[in-house]
Give the backbone structure.
Amino acid sequence: MSELYYIIFLPLLAGIILFAFPERIRMIKGIVALIISGISFFFAIRLFSYSPQLVNLDLFSFLFSQNSIAYKVLQGASEFSSYNIDNLGKFITLGICFFSMLILLYSLAYLDKNRSPHNYYPYFLITMGLSAGAALTDNLLLFIAFWGFLGLTLYKLIKADNDQSSSAAKKTLILVGSSDAIMILGIGIIWQVYGTFAISELDIPTTSPILVIAFLSLLIGSFTKAGAFPFHTWIPDYAQHAPASSSACLPASLDKLLGIYFLTRICVDMFSLSQWLTFLLLLLGVMTIIFAVMMALVQHNFKRLLGYHAVSQVGYMVVGLGLGTPLGIAGGLFHMINHALYKSGLFLAAGNIEAQTGKKNLDELGGLSRIMPVTFISALIFALAISGVPPFNGFASKWLIYQGIIDFGREPGLANNLWILWLGLAVLGSALTLASFIKFISGIFLGRMSDKLSKVREASILMWLPCLVLALICTFFGIMASQTVIPKMIMPLIGDFEYPGIWDSTVVSILILVSIILGGIIYLAANMKRFRSEDSFIGGEKIGEENSFSVVEFYKTIREFKLLSIIYDWAEQKWFDLYDLLKKVTLSFSKWLSMAHTGTLTFYAVWILAGLIIMFIVML
C-alpha cells in the first residue's frame, strides 16, 4: 500500500531534509512543508478507498542489496512494521493531515523572527509523520517508538527564549516522557502474558492485578497525551508560552486526536473493562471537566484560558468512552473531532489577536469586533460551539454523550447507578464553559476599545482564512449532525446505534434561523437603528476609559468566594500539579542524599558496605 509511504515517511523524510536549509529561507521551507502536507492529505483521503485490512510495510530494504547488513537489518525491522487500515485509523489520519495542512497555511503569515521556534517547519513535518504512524500502526513496539518521538517534537515546537517558556517546555518533556516510560511497562506486561505486540489480536480481561496494571500504564500515557486529570498540567503552561500555531497543532488537535484515539483502542479494542475501571474512568472524566473549567474561569491570559478548556473538553471524551456503550463511544469520538475543530480555531483566533495587538491579557483588550470582524465572527462561532450552544457541532456531540449517560443508567452496576451524577456534572461543566467564554468574547471583542488599539487591523488572509474554514465546518457539522455527519462519519467507526431521545439537528437549526430573521424584522420595523446613542455618565460626568469596567473584574467574585478562594490558593501554590509535587519530592530526596556526602572516608566505607549487603540480599 504505497499511500502509507506518502502519509508517514514522506513528511518524516522531508522534515529531516529541511534541517539542512538555513532559517533565512524560512518562508520557502514553510511553502515546502505546506505542499508536503497537501500531498499527505490527498493520500489520506485515498485510504478510504480500501476496505479495512492489515498491511505489512517494507522499511526501504529494497534500496539495498540483499547481501548488505542494511538490507538484513531493515528486513528484520519490517517484521514489526504492521499497520491496521481500519475505519478508526483512517479517520484519525485524515484529521491529522487536514489540521496539519491548515495550520501550516496559517503559520506562513503568523510566524516571524520573534515568534518562530528554530527549525519550526522541519519539526512540524516530523510531528505530522509520527502522528500518522502512531494512528495507523498495529504493533505496540512501533507505536511506542512513534509516540515517544512525539514528546521530543512537542518540546521543540515551543520557543524557549525566556525562563517561563523554558520551564513550560521542560515540564512538557518530563511529563510526556515519564508517561511514555510507564507505557513501556504496560506493553512489557502484555508481551509477557500474551506473547504478542499486535493490537488487533488483543482482547484482555481486567480480572487480575497484573492486567489491571497493564491497563493503567497505557491509560496514563493516553491521559497525559490528551491532557486529562491529573496528568494535564503541562497543557495550560504550553498553551500560554508556545506560539499559537504550535498550540493549535498539538494540545488542540493532533495530541487530542492521538490521546483519545489510543484511549479508544485500549478501552474498546484491547481491554474489557471491569465495573470498577468504568467507575474510575467516569470519575476522572467529570473531575477533568469541572476542575479545568473552574480554573479557566479565573484566568486573565486568554491563551492560558484556552489551555484549561483544552483540558476540560477532554473530560467529555473520557466520559463518553468510559460508558462503553455504542452511544457513549460515538459521542466521545464525535466530540474528539469537534474539539479539534473549534479548539484549533480558538487558538488560531487567539494568535490573530496576539499578533495584531501584542497583548495577551483580557483586561488589556476590548472592542475589537469592528476592526477584526472575521476573527470576531469565527471566534464567536468557536465559543458557542465549545459551550454546547445549538446549532453548532459542540452541542451535537455533547447531546450524544448526555443521551449515552442516560442510556447507561438503565443497566445495573455501581457506575450505572450514579448516572445522574455524571450527567449533572457534565451539564454543569457546559454551563461554566459558556460563562468563561462570555468572558473571553466580551473581554476581547466587545466593550470599550482603548485608544492604544485604534491602529489595529484585521489579520492577513492567510491567518483569518483557516479560522473561517474551521468555523464553517463547525457550523456544518452541527446543522447536518443527525442527517449526515453521525450516520456517514461516526457510525462507520463503531457500528449502527439508535438515539433514545428525539433530536433533529436540521429542524433545530431552521428554528434558530427563523428566530434570527424574525428578530431582524422586528428590529427594522421598530426603527431601532434611529435611536440615539450616547456615552454613559454618572453625576453629569462621562465615564472615561480610566473609569471603564473590565469584564474580568466580574469573575473575581468567583476567585474571592470563601470556599473557592482556598482551593484557588492551593492551585496557585501548585498543590494539584502532579509535576510540581513530584519535583518537590525529588529535590527533597536529593537534598537528603547530598547530606550523606560528608567527606569522611569511614562514612563512605559504611555506605559501600551497606550497598553490598543489599545487593547480596537481592541476588539471593
User: Anything to note?
Assistant: The two ends are 53 Å apart (CA to CA).
